[in-house]
# Entry
Amino acid sequence: MADLAEVRGLAERLISHHLPGQGWQFGFDRARRRGGVCIYQTRRIQLSRALAEVWAIEQCEQVVLHEIAHALAGAAAGHGVRWRAQADRIGCRRETLSDGGVAERDAPIVGVCPNGHQFFRYRMPSGPRTCSRCHRGFDLRYQITWARR
# Structure
């Protein structure tokens, strides 16, 4: 588990190294379903505080590098060739990270399919959902039942 002050220091060093003099800043946010975000309009890279608290410092570093690669590649690049080239250049491993169990621990909404698969949400779904593990498409035989904890 990473110390938030250590994560902030690391992120600020990485941003000043890879994006010198461009006005980019770092901050934590309240996100729980994604690790980080690159906000082009305000030149801000944000990391989920909840996930940073459960991840190792190396995982936090990779998320910050992922977002720096977005800043370098530009808003239109997405995760395409230009973004991948920037990510490789700065040492981002381009790996998918899990949420560290934050959703399972904190999400107020729990869904269960007829076969017992669980799903966690922060808001109640607006319409019917079916289990993607039981069937690839929408099939009401596998409808998820949602409840508040």
About this structure: The CA atoms of residues 116 and 144 lie 9 Å apart. The mean pLDDT is 93. The longest strand covers residues 25-29.
